[in-house]
Structures are given as structure tokens and as C-alpha cells.
């Protein structure tokens, strides 16, 4: 193996040092500056992207706050509208109930008037029937019918029944 031949060691060391020097010079002057520039550009892009992301995050928070405020405003406006409509409906309902109560009261008064008329008519008819029946009974038993006595007897009896 020629690498292990001690006679060629100085020559191998020389070319090793020349090769390492050239390699160092190429890397330090050409490759490493380019790599450093790429890394610097990447770091700048990453930093810029992080700053943009932070800005977008802040904008998103502001937009969310605006959305929440708009939603709260819309809800409060909707509640106001519901309350106004509810009050209006309640007012209409109260008016309808008052109208219905007035109509019921009018019909009840009319019904009471009719009932009073019917009661008076029934009382008058009952008195007339009572007088006629009393007169017929007195005649049937062979008595003398005096209209004044029959009217007085029927009136006394009807007063007792009506009380």
C-alpha cells in the first residue's frame, strides 16, 4: 500500500495541506458566504412572516371584537324590538279585552232586562191564572165569586210566595 510507505509521507502531507488550504479557501470565500446569505434571507423571511402573522392575529382579534360588539348590539336591538312589539300586542290585547268586557256587560244588562221582563210577565200571568183558577174553584164549589175578594186573596198569597 503506497499510503503506508514512509518515503512518500512528506509528499502526502504537502498535498494534504495544499488540498485542505484550497478547500478552506473555497468554502470560506465562496460556499459559506452563500450559505450564510441563504440562512440570513431565510431568517429574515421567517421573522417577516412571524411579524405578519402577529399582525394578522391582532387584526383577527380586532375583527372578532368588532363582530362580538355588532352581535351584542344586534341582540340588544332585537330585544328592544321584541319588547316594543310585545307592548304593542299587549296594548291591543287590553283594548280587545276591554271591548269584549263592554260587550259582555251590555249583553248581560240586556239579558237581565229580558229576564226582569219575563219575570214580570210570568208574575202577571201567574196572578191572572191564579185569579181565574180561584174564581172557577169558588164557582165549582158553589160559591159566589166576588172579584175584589179574589184579587185580595190572590195578592196576599202572591206576596207570601214572592218574599
Automatic annotation (TrEMBL):
Its main location: membrane. Gene3D superfamilies: 6.10.250.1580. It is found in: Cell membrane; Endomembrane system. Residues 53-80 form a coiled coil. The chain crosses the membrane at residues 12-32. The keyword Transmembrane helix applies. Keywords: ATP synthesis, Cell membrane, CF(0), Coiled coil, Hydrogen ion transport, Ion transport, Membrane, Transmembrane, Transmembrane helix, Transport. InterPro entries: ATP_synth_b/b'su_bac/chlpt, ATP_synthase_B_chain. F-type ATPases have 2 components, F(1) - the catalytic core - and F(0) - the membrane proton channel. F(1) has five subunits: alpha(3), beta(3), gamma(1), delta(1), epsilon(1). F(0) has three main subunits: a(1), b(2) and c(10-14). The alpha and beta chains form an alternating ring which encloses part of the gamma chain. F(1) is attached to F(0) by a central stalk formed by the gamma and epsilon chains, while a peripheral stalk is formed by the delta and b chains. This is ATP synthase subunit b. It comes from Paracoccus albicereus.
Amino acid at each position: 500500500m503506497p499510503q503506508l510507505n514512509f518515503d512518500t509521507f512528506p509528499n502526502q502531507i504537502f498535498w494534504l495541506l495544499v488540498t485542505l488550504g484550497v478547500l478552506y479557501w473555497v468554502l470560506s470565500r465562496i460556499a459559506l458566504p452563500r450559505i450564510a446569505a441563504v440562512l440570513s434571507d431565510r431568517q429574515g423571511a421567517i421573522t417577516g412572516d412571524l411579524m405578519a402573522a402577529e399582525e394578522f392575529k391582532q387584526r383577527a382579534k380586532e375583527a372578532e371584537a368588532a363582530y362580538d360588539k355588532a352581535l351584542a348590539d344586534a341582540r340588544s336591538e332585537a330585544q328592544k324590538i321584541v319588547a316594543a312589539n310585545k307592548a304593542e300586542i299587549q296594548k291591543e290585547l287590553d283594548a280587545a279585552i276591554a271591548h269584549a268586557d263592554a260587550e259582555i256587560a251590555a249583553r248581560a244588562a240586556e239579558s237581565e232586562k229580558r229576564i226582569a221582563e219575563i219575570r214580570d210577565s210570568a208574575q202577571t200571568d201567574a196572578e191572572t191564572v191564579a185569579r181565574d183558577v180561584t174564581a172557577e174553584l169558588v164557582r165549582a164549589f158553589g160559591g159566589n165569586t166576588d172579584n175584589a175578594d179574589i184579587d185580595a186573596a190572590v195578592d196576599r198569597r202572591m206576596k207570601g210566595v214572592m218574599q
